[in-house]
Amino acid sequence: MATTVKLSDEAINEARRYSKIYSRSTPKQIEYWMTIGKIAEENPDLSYNFIKEIMLAQSDLNNDEVIPYEFG
Description:
single chain; mainly alpha
């Protein structure tokens, strides 16, 4: 469900700047930051890089891009 949210011009401009670097739309960049922030607040001991790797692994799993590891 889409909802309109008012953000400062400064926040929008920063999101727009980063969205171009990472090839995301501005709303998707804001959603990405929101997700990172939520995970960081709920898990203050995790580093940004660890959180990012978790998100990448979840994306791989959701897209069936995971190969089972076989021991031996």
